[in-house]
Write a structure and sequence with these properties.
By secondary structure, the protein is of the alpha+beta class. Helices cover 34% and strands 22% of the residues. It contains 5 helices and 7 strands. Helix 1 runs antiparallel to helix 2 and helix 2 runs parallel beside helix 4. The radius of gyration is 16 Å and the shape is globular.
């Protein structure tokens, strides 16, 4: 980890409540171990984005940690986990249901960006529904140390998906959801 990356992590973690610092640091450091680079953003350095540039020069974000002292609560974590096997872990399902309740769900249009391959699925009214397309980082609440393995698994799956999807033209044309 470079000095600049360490500074980004340390700056954002220092703003978090003490009980969350180790959990958020573990998640951030795992993203770094997969090659994602943390960058401080915002006028008052209130969030860190974890981005990675893939061999085809495409940039993707896997994690955002927010510590904005003007908000309540002051902290937030947003992650990508669309590549996990459905059904998702309970905490992830709860996050998607919150996302839907807020009216942020939208159908995927098989856009050129992801060809319908980077959508989250959730169960609404006893049927599988695609929701929250490829541009979405999903807001996670009330994270604890017990959630770290699920989040690390999610990051590993998303990173592996990106490695295949972004570097192999045949993968970009595959219909990933033909068997919902």
């Amino acid at each position: 980890m470079t000095q600049k990356q360490q500074h980004a992590i340390d700056t954002i973690i220092a703003k978090l409540p003490a009980k969350l610092q180790e959990t958020y640091r573990n998640i951030g450091e795992y993203a770094i171990s997969l090659g994602y680079k943390p960058t401080l953003k915002g006028a008052q350095q209130q969030y860190v984005l974890f981005n990675k540039t893939f061999p085809n020069k495409t940039n993707r974000t896997i994690l955002k940690i927010v510590a904005d002292l003007k908000r309540e609560p002051i902290y937030a974590m947003e992650i990508r986990f669309f590549a996990n096997t459905f059904p998702y872990p309970l905490k992830f399902e709860q996050a998607l249901k919150s996302y839907n309740k807020l009216g942020w769900n939208f159908p995927c249009n098989n856009c050129e960006h992801c060809k319908g391959a980077q959508c989250y699925k959730t169960i609404l009214n006893e049927e599988n529904v695609k929701t929250a397309g490829c541009i979405s980082l999903i807001h996670m609440r009330n994270l604890s140390a017990e959630d770290v393995p699920d989040i690390q698994e999610a990051f590993k799956n998303v990173n592996n998906f990106y490695m295949s999807f972004l570097t192999d033209p045949a993968m970009r044309n595959k219909d990933y959801y033909s068997g919902l």
